[in-house]
Amino acid sequence: MSITGKKIAFIGAGNMAEALINGLLSSKIVSVKQITAFDVNGNRLDWLKNEYKIKITDSSTAAIEKSDVVILAVKPQVLPDVLERIGETLKDKLVISIAAGISTKKIENYLPKKTPVIRVMPNTPALVCRGAAAICRGKSATKTHASLAIDIFHSVGYAIQVKENLMDTITAVSGSGPAYVFYLMEAMVKSAIDGGMPKYKALNLVAETVRGAGELVIRTQELPGKLRERVTSPGGTTEAAIKILDINKVNYTLLTAITAASERSEALSAP
Hints:
The protein has 271 residues and is of the alpha/beta class.
């Protein structure tokens, strides 16, 4: 299944939906005529129409009926209620959900039999086309369905296919991961400002440091631990900092935090 010529309906038009719309149009994978968005917030829809020239509608059913692919871009807490209303209209559509922690099985329970479902865990850097997403297939989704979903999420960054039993871990690692990095960056920026640097110079210095570190991992394909060891000269400044992190068990704390996020995702996935 190729995305060429396919009509895509977004149910929910928040930040992640906008990121995908922007990515799809910027990469010229689809045209504005192929995208329709629905949201309960009419002002938001009007803004998207003016900004991207896509079609909008005040009826979720109307959006779905004219589409081949339906992207469920609503919050996990409201997805069951949304599916209660629109489930039957999703027959013969490819359904792609980006609701964190909601399993394909739970989604399928609301849909006509044999409706193909793809579950995706994206992350917020998709807003600047540097996202990292993982997708998995429901029981009726085929490899071609998965390939189409990969194409969509490649438009806003990196995307891979995995087994669904990995999705809770992925939610905790890459889905929530930007927040962990921002948490670290908060401390780095504060330290720079406390040391006398102007706010925005500190912010950009830290942001470029983090971006560069990520790029170094991607280009070298080396484990972060190995790269850290190269920076950590005996008796040097980095070693002094790492010793404090180790004394305070920062690594263990992060592992515990990520496990908590994974367990929360698992709880949301429960029937």
